[in-house]
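Subject: for your reference before the review

Hello V.,

The reviewers asked for a structural picture of the protein, and I figured it would be easier to keep everything in one thread rather than splitting it across files. Below is the amino acid sequence we used in the manuscript, unchanged from the supplementary table.
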Amino acid sequence: MSRLRIVTFNIAHGRGLAPIQGLTSPRKIRVNLRRIAAMLRRLDPDIVAMQEIDENSRWAGSFNHLDYLRVFGKFPHAVFGINNRRMGFLNLSYGNALLSRHVILETETVAFGKRRVGEKGFLFAELAVGARRVPFVNLHLHSSSRARRMRQLDLLVAWLRAKQRSSSHRWAIPPIVCGDFNTPATRDDATAALWGHLREYGDYIVRPQTGGTFPSPLPRRMLDFIFLPASCRHVECRVLRSMLSDHCPVVVEFTF
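And here is what came back from the structure prediction:
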């Protein structure tokens, strides 16, 4: 059996608990990212899925946050999934990203729309875990509109079906899906809808089940989840209390 430890974490553009994007100095952003990297070294995860991470944005210090975390976190593999790009004086480039200790075989980025700021999307990757090919989705859904979240999930599920049909490679397990869902686990919103969609792959479990991930100083809402297929066993999950972002990171460990 293989054992994996996964972290999903919305890092809020590296600004920590600063309430307004763009008012944090590049020095403070670097200090905060080094603290995130130190936390990741302590946790020693196999895969880190991050949302709201910047490639080169003026409001986030104009440097590559993923490469910074890869170096200081000592990860051999990394990939960006950019959903937002804007050129010019107020340039920005950000979205989702993965850090991995396993080889990343294939990736694809899907943005849900065409806005240059505030767009959400998902990053798909296939990881080589031993001799197995493990599909992985890092997802960020719309923050304020339930209707948009539901349409975004429909797009994700349709994309996964097409991907599986067209792939020349066999997945070792059904897709692992994680990220910032921007909604608690209610019956009539995105988490329940995705759970229903994924039934075509078999039973899934969702973690965390209790507690909160947002806002990090006093977590009252659970917005960040990891969906695991039934072949994932001996699942352990915890939400870390952290002030490195407005979200708390979620850690899940399991065998498959």
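For the response letter, the relevant points are probably these. Residues 3-255 form a domain with the Deoxyribonuclease I; Chain A fold (CATH 3.60.10.10). The chain has a mean pLDDT of 95.

Happy to draft the paragraph if you're swamped.

O.
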